[in-house]
Amino acid sequence: MPFTDDGSYRVVRRRMTLSDSLQGFVCVSDVHGAYNLLKAVPIPSGYQLLSLGDMLDEEVDPSGTIDWLQEHCGPCAILGNHDEQVVHQAVSFSATINCELRAAQLAYLKTWPDEYEISWRGYTIYCMHGHRDNQEQGVAWTTSIAEGLARFRNPLYDLTLVGHTHQPYIVYDAETITANCGSVAQLREQPGRSWLIVDEENDQLRVQLQHQYE
After folding, report:
1. Domain tally for the chain?
2. CATH number at residue 135
3. Is residue 81 part of a domain?
4. Which of 17, 20, 41, 206 has CB 3.0 to 4.6 Å from 201, enough for a Cys bridge?
5. Closest listed residue to residue 32, CA positions, set 128, 126, 163, 142
6. What pTM did the predictor assign?
């Protein structure tokens, strides 16, 4: 369990090298149990799905969500604050979902780290849900885009990917790219959903925002 002896939370970070043969990544976040919407996200051939957390919430089919993620994401998934609550049964709804998951499904969920550093084609991509910043300080889901950029932009990486705020954005500058997936379930300020495509164009890292508006 990622807790220290004094009860504080210890962030689990992992490194992963993915095959250069991958064409790119489809990055999703904040599904919040919208299983049918998650399944509807198109994954082009040769692309890897990356899950940036908050996959679970008060939902009809947590078991189906976990099974689908295990098939399509494999190890490429990180915990959001809602997923952490399910793992640790922190609030009443999370204890209910925890009990609905089979032992093998819960074991898979517990393999998710908090953050990933991914190496691919010479790029370094940092993935985090966004409920904690680079200094491990809590971040509200109502955080503005400007504040989010100030707290997550990191020139040590080619790309930093986050979710949590349900507000999609992509910001390129001279040193790095910072991008937020938005939400597969519901955007914050308009009806609809979003996700990101990360790949290469002309030997340059490219990040594209995908929208579906209601």
Report:
1. 1
2. 3.60.21.10
3. yes
4. 206
5. 163
6. 0.91
Query: Is residue 5 in a domain?
Result: no
Does some domain include residue 2?
no
Residue 179 domain boundaries: 13-213
Separation between Cα atoms, residue 20 and residue 34, nearest integer Å: 31
φ and ψ of 212, to 5 deg: -135, 115
Interval 130-185: pLDDT, tens: 999 988 899 999 999 999 999 999 999 999 999 999 999 999 999 999 999 999 98
Is residue 178 domain-resident?
yes
Cβ within 8 Å of residue 107, ≥6 positions away: none
pLDDT in tens, 64-112: 889 999 999 999 999 999 998 888 775 556 666 767 788 898 899 999 9
